[in-house]
Amino acid sequence: MSEITCDVNSVGRTKVIDDKLLAFTTRLQTLLLMNKGTMPNDPDMGIGIKTYVYEFADGSTIATLRSEIDKQIEKYIPNPYPAVIDVEMANDPHRKNAKIFVVALKVNSEDRDGTTVAIIMRGGQGNKIVSSIASY
Questions:
Q1: Would you say 35 and 46 are in contact if contact means Cβ atoms under 8 Å apart?
Q2: Residues facing residue 89 across a β-bridge
């Protein structure tokens, strides 16, 4: 699996991510940030994590989000990287009623056994979502 990005490399060519785990994580991050209806030819594509920012951080919300992530992976990420996915929500200490989301992928495969990759998202200024990928 490779992921073609909108970035360019040092020689001005389209950047391609060949690392299978990073490609999977980048594609999942895109699905998390994308709102449904963004792609006119596929209106179901995307999770729209921004819509969850002011939701209650209870078991029901986490289950709904987890179910949506599973559906999006099944439909839009062929041959996903073998990983156990966990979703966590916590109150953002810097923004009243806002949340911090962590989507953690615990990898169990021959090439990266025990690696955890997390997509960390939090509300930013102007109700935007700031997202980063961390590996540990």
A1: yes
A2: 101
The pair phi, psi for residue 15, each rounded to 5°, is: -80, 130
Query: Measuring CA to CA, how many Å separate 55 from each of 36, 64, 117, 119?
Result: 18, 11, 24, 19
Mean pLDDT for 99-109 is 77
Whole-model pTM? 0.74
Rounded CA gap, 3 and 98, in Å?
Answer: 31
- Asked whether the predicted pLDDT for residue 37 surpasses 60, the reply is yes
Rounded distance between C-alpha atoms, residue 24 and residue 101, angstroms? 18
pLDDT computed for residue 131 by the predictor: 73
Q: Where are the beta strands (DSSP E) in the chain?
A: 3-8, 14-17, 83-91, 99-107, 116-123, 129-135
